[in-house]
UniProtKB/TrEMBL annotation:
InterPro entries with a match to the protein in the record: ADH-like_C (IPR013149), ADH-like_N (IPR013154), ADH_Zn_CS (IPR002328), ER (IPR020843), GroES-like_sf (IPR011032), NAD(P)-bd_dom_sf (IPR036291)
Domain Enoyl reductase (ER): residue ranges: 16-360
A molecular function GO annotation: zinc ion binding
PANTHER family: GROES-LIKE ZINC-BINDING ALCOHOL DEHYDROGENASE FAMILY PROTEIN, NAD-DEPENDENT ALCOHOL DEHYDROGENASE
Pfam family, one: ADH_zinc_N
Keywords, alphabetical: Metal-binding, Oxidoreductase, Zinc
Lineage, uppermost ranks: Bacteria, Bacillati, Actinomycetota, Actinomycetes, Mycobacteriales
Protein name from the UniProt record: Zinc-binding dehydrogenase
Similarity remark: Belongs to the zinc-containing alcohol dehydrogenase family.
Cofactor: Zn(2+)
Record PROSITE patterns: ADH_ZINC
Amino acid sequence: MEITAAVARGADAPFSMETLTLEEPRPSEVLVRIVATGVCHTDLVTKGVFPAELPIVLGHEGAGIVEQIGSEVTGIEVGDHVLLTYASCGTCSRCADGLPPYCENFVILNTSGGRADFTSPLSNNGERVMGAFFGQSSFATHALVPARSVVVVDKDVDLVATAPFGCGVQTGAGAVANVMKPGPNDSLAIFGVGGVGMAALMAARAIGAGTIVAIDLSADRLALAKELGADVTIDGAAEDVVAQIVAATAGGANFALDTTARNAVIAKGLEALAPMGTLVLVGLGEASMDLEIGHLTGNGKAVRGCIEGSGDPQKFIPQLLRWHAEGTFPIEKISKTYAFTDIDAAVADAHHGTTIKPILTFD
Ligand SMILES: [Zn+2]
Ligand SMILES: [Zn+2]
């Protein structure tokens, strides 16, 4: 079939709106008409930096309605409303353990822009266009998605508001809900309240964590963090960030989340922890760093990474939807909608930080 897609043809080139040919679904794939898609930081990074094969259709926070299913697909029907999430193989040991974020085939299935066999479902008059980015390539009117990446939702779910649940939101919320699991007496310091940090903040509030501290360079974001339930907000440019966190948490934070992937910030996160505290890293950025070993051995602190919220999206996305329905996860506070054709403006606003979470909508 013919679809319209925003094609990335170069790091600095604007998205190119093109008519592409999309293959028929394979036996395990589902054809989804995209209703909305979030713009995630990884889309921006991939367009500018990753060695993904070009041209490529990015986008990996799609939401839509099923139009066709492959012959082997079960549990999904034409007309179902769905949120899309990242791809996983379903056959490796980590997938078998219910931890698809750590799928052995995660990199090829999500970041190459091709299926596991390197084929792409997209082409433009015979030219290969990469089109299985995170199992979806949702910057397009339609996407072919592996059934494992499809989460069926109730028909009263707002597909526009909740589109970002499939990646950026579950990344931040899952780091708190699935990895840290803070109790009412546990404090949490969140470094960077962009989309991922704000999702972590909302999840921490939803599950009843103790003192929450938000650190960011933007006064506007800190004000919004306060509105969303941060007890204390700290200007990240202040000389005494660590001292302020320690004071706010009566001796150090039990948990800290770094969304910045900047070494200087990560070092502060480790320093600001209470003894036995855990720092969780979710950002993509600097490749390596020196850690002060004394913090780990002398104080029992831990540092660990986390990807895609470290849970099973088939279980965790419904949890996020329940919180959203109850009003404890007001994603609308951090998002702004744009028409699909205004994708360049949406990406520019995300890049400049004027919009925390852009969501593209389709007619
Ligand atoms: Zn796997
Ligand atoms: Zn993402």
